[in-house]
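> tool_call: predict_assembly(chains=two)
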Amino acid sequence: MTQVGRTPRPRQLADQRSYPNRRQIPVTAADLLDRAGALLADGHRLALIAAHDDLDSFRVVYLFTAGQPDRRVELILSTNHARPQIPSLAGLSFPAGRFERELSDLYGIEVLNHPLPQRLVLHQHWPTEWHPMRHDAGAAPAFGSPDEPYPFLTVAGPGVYEIPVGPIHAGLIEPGHFRFSVVGETILKLKARLWFTHKGIEKLAEGRLPADVLPLAERISGDTAVGHALAYCLAIEEARDWPVSGPASILRSVLLELERLYNHIADIGALCNDVGYGIINAHALRIREQLLRLNKQVTGHRLLRGAIVPGGVHLLALPDPAQLSAIAADIQQVVDIALENSVVLDRMTGTAVLSAEQAHDIGTLGYVARASGLRQDARLDHPITLATTAADVPNHSDGDVLARFLTRADEVQASVSLIIELLRTQPPTSADTPKPTWLQAGRISGLGLVEGWRGTIAHRVEMAPDGTVSRLKIVDPSFFNWPALPVALADTIVPDFPLTNKSFNLSYAGNDL
Amino acid sequence: MTPGAMAGVLLQVVLLIAVAPYVVGVMRQVRARLEGRAGAGIGQPWRDLRKQLAKEAISPEGSSWVFTAAPVVLLASTLVIAAVGPFISTASPLDRVADLFAVVALLLLGTVALALAGLDTGTAFGGMGASREITVAALAEPTILLVGFALSARVDSSNLAAIVDRIQDNPAQVLSPASVLAAVALAVVVVAEAGRLPVDNPSTHLELTMIHEAMVLEYSGRDLATIELAAALRLTVLLGLWANLFLPWGVATSASPSALGIGAAVFVGKVAILAVALATAEVFMAKLRLFRVPELLAGSFLFGVLAVSSSFFLA
C-alpha cells in the first residue's frame, strides 16, 4: 500500500454549496479505486479528470456520468503541493490513463502505478520540470532538448517498414504526425502523435470574466462553435445558479442541430471524395453552402458564432421548416446516389472495423460510438430540454466506415425532424434571463454536458469569489475518440487510411487545446 | 527521307505536344461542368506548365542523377512514340520503328524511370508509389502484348502503320470479335497506364492513396513541368493509339500537305471525343480499393486472351 500525500480533511474538498443534479464526494487516495470501480460498474462513464492548483495543495476532480436518468458524480481527491501523487485509475478505465498523463504533464502530479507514464501533451523539447498549469509556472521556458527522438514502438520483421506522415500534410488539414508500421500495404501498427497545436486555452481562460471567456470557448474547434459555447454557458449557469428559460433551451437545441447538419453533410461529401467519387462531394458542398447561408440568416454568422450567451440565446430569425425539409430530402438523394455505386459501397463496407467492445473500452463518443452499436448520446442522457429526448438515435452496429457514413446520414434526417419538432413550440427569436446579482460565497463550480456534432462535450468551470473563472476544464469528444483510430486500423491497408481517418473526422484543435 | 515526310513527322510531334495539355484541360473542364462547378478552363494545364517552367527545380537531399534524369527519360521516351506512331499519317519515314512491341517497351521505359526516381528520393511515399506503379504496370503490360498479338495476327506484322492501313482497307474488321475484345482490353489498360479512375485518382491530395502522384511528390519547377507534360503526352498518345487502332479513318496514307492537314484535324477530333467520353465516364466512377485493381486488370487480360483466340479461330 502506497502512502499518498497527507490526508486532508475531506469536507474542505467539496464546494460549500450543493448542486441539484451533481453529487460531490470527497475521497482519499486509499478508497479512490474502490469508489471509481463501483461507479463504473454501475453504468457510469468517466467524463473527465480535472486537476486544480489550490496554492497549498492540488485537488483532482474525477467526474463520472450516466444517463437515463441523468446522474453526475464527482470524486474529489487532494494531494499535497510539495510532492503531489495520485494513484492511477488506468487499470479501471482506459481514458483515465490518458487524463492522468495530461495532468501529469500540465500540473506535474506524479501518477503512481501508471502503465505508460510517458508525456502526452507536452512534446519532448519542453523541459520536464516545467508544468504550465501550475499557478507559479511563469512564462514558457527555452526549449530543452529539441532533437531527442520520440520513443516510437518499432515493429521488426522481414518486410516491415515505416511510413512517417505529417505533421505537415498535402491537404488543408490540421497538424498531426502518423507513424505507420507496414508490411506490404497492410498496417501492423499506427501511432498518432498530436498536440502540435496545444495553445493553452484552459490557461488563457483563468482569471477572466465569464463573458470574456465565451469567445475563447467558441473558438476551441472552429466547426464546433455552438457545442463548445453551449457547454461553457451551461457550466457558467450551473455555477452561478442561473436558470435559463424553456424557450432558450429550445433555441439552443435548434442551433446544436444546425451545427450537426452542416458538418455531417460536409463529411458525407468528403467520404465520397476520398474514394474518388467527386460528384457527391460537389453536391454535398452545394448543400453545405445552403446551410451556411441559413446559419447566417438565423444567427448573423455562417458558423453560428455569437448566438449563445450565458443566460440566454439571441437569434435574428428562426429557420424555415419547409426549407430544412427540402434540404433533408436533397441530402437523402445524394446519400442514395452514393450508395448505389457498388465501388463506393465496396470501399466502405468492412473497412476499419471498431467492435462494440473496443468502442466501449476506449470510451468513444458520438457517431463513432453509435456506429459501433453503443447508444451514447447526451441529448438523451443529459438533456437540456426534455424535447431532445425524443431524438432518433440511429441504430448501426457494424463499426466500419459504412456504419459511420450511414450514422451521419441518419442523424441528418433525425436532426431535421428534431428541429421541426422544436420549432413547433413556436419559440421567440431571443430569450434571456438576467444574471443573478448575488454571488455565492466561496468557490463554486459548474458542469456543461452537450451532444456536439462529434459527440459529448464536457466543460467544467470553477469560479473564484470575485466572479472570475478560476479554472476551465474542456473535454472535446476527440480526446476520447483519437485512440480508437489506430485500433480500428489494425489490418487495414495503407490506401484506406485517409478514408478511415475521414470517417472518424476527429478534431486536432479540440484535442490539443 | 524527303523534306515532305520530315515535315509530316515534325508536324505530328509538334501537334501532339501542343494538344496534350489541352486534353488534360478538357477532361478537367468536362468533369467540373458535370459536377456543377465552373472549372478553370481548358488552357489551365498550359498556364501551369508555363509557370512551373519558369521556376527552378529542387532535388531532395541525397538523391542521385537518377532523380534528375527520370523526367528527361520519361519525356524523351514518350516523344519517340509521338514521332513514330501512326497518329496523323501511316506514310511516316520512321515507319519501320513504329512497332507495337517497341511502343510498349518505350512506355515501360518511362514507367520504370519514374519508379526508380521515386525510390531514389528515399521517402516513404516515393517508394510506396513506385511499388504500386510497378504492380499495376506488371499487370497491364501483358494485356498490351496480348492485344498486340491479336491485332498483328491478321496482318502478319506488328507494325502499327500496317495494322492501321489494313483496317482502313477492310472496315468490316472493326466489328470482328477479335477487334472488339482487343478494344475493351486496351481501353482498361489505357486507363491504368494513364493513372485515371478507377485505378488512380489524378486529383487527390491524399498522399497515402496516390500511385502516380506519390512518385512525383518531390519534383518541383522545371522537372515537375517536364513530368506533367510527359504525363499529358502519354495520355494523348494512348488515346490516339486506341483511336487509330480501332477507328482508323481519316489517318493520312500519303505525305501530301492536304492529307496531313486532314489527318491532323481528324486526330484532334478523335482524341477530343475520347477525352470527353473518358472524363464523363469518370464522373460516375469511384476509385477501386487498391487490392481490387489486379482483378480489373486480370479481367482486361482475359479479354486480351479471348481476342487472341478469336483472331486465330474466327479469322
